[in-house]
Amino acid sequence: MQLETERLIIREYEAADVDAMQRYCADPEVLRYTLWGPNTPEMTLNFINMAADYRAESPRMKYEVALTLKDSGELIGGSALYITGFNGEIGYTLNRSFWGKGYASEAADALLAYGFAHHGLHRIFATCRPANAASAGVMKRVGMTREGRMREHLWAKGQWFDSELYSILVHEYAGKQKA
Ligand SMILES: CC(C)(COP(=O)(O)OP(=O)(O)OC[C@H]1O[C@@H](n2cnc3c(N)ncnc32)[C@H](O)[C@@H]1OP(=O)(O)O)[C@@H](O)C(=O)NCCC(=O)NCCS
To answer: Quick one: CA torsion of 55, 60, 62, 63, rounded to 10 degrees?
Structure first.
């Protein structure tokens, strides 16, 4: 899978991406609200291999993809799309140097378009920790609606976590494209 947006090429990971990924996969500021990490280079390589296994599945239901700058090819982060029935879930993580420039929203929007058009999804959702205003900001910017808070639905790192849940339906997305 490869998608092109105004400023990004969204492509499959390659083994050579480890170094660029390590620049954010071991950054405590990037990992502040994530339930994964910090990664060692070996863990990041395992993740790339896992992404390659997803790519080999048919029909493909899981995408872990690299976000790269169209003009330089630099890898600036990663995004994900996971499909269950008519529902999809998206996620995103960026190297801190590239925050606040609209890249996550650009990538999320491309994954919404792909999920609705290519997979015929009806609803795509995303979740974040309640304090993660940047992640919620992406969900709002791509037109998702807040559904509510899932209370203590995740157990990780020795504690329960709440999540904010946002989603967008296929007809809402189509309406947004026309507007
Ligand atoms: C979440 C993350 C991917 C956002 O990336 P980004 O490219 O900076 O986001 P965007 O520039 O597309 O911003 C989208 C919206 O969120 C807002 N936003 C961005 N950072 C924000 C912050 N720290 N606080 C409040 N709002 C913020 C932007 O202003 C924008 O809203 P607008 O359309 O009203 O201007 C990035 O902060 C990140 O990688 N965080 C660490 C990993 C992570 O937490 N991932 C999500 C796990 S659920």
So the answer is: 50
CATH of domain 2-178: 3.40.630.30
Nearest protein Cα to ligand 1, atom 22: 134
9 pLDDT band (50/70/90 cuts)? Answer: very high
DSSP reduced 3-state for 144: coil
User: Is the CB of residue 122 less than 8 Å from the CB of residue 169?
Assistant: yes
Mutate which of 69, 90, 93, 164 for ligand 1 pocket (most atoms within 8 A of beta carbon): 93
Residues in the chain: 179
Centroid of ligand 1 to alpha carbon of 100 (angstroms): 6
Share of the chain above pLDDT 70, in %: 100
138/151 Cα distance (integer angstroms): 21
Residue 174 has pLDDT above 90, yes or no: yes
Pairing of strands 123-128, 159-169: antiparallel
- Closest residue by Cα to atom 30, ligand 1, is 137
The label of the residue with tokens 């499959």 reads 12
State the closest ligand 1 atom to the C-alpha of 135, by its place in the atom list counted from 1.
Answer: 1
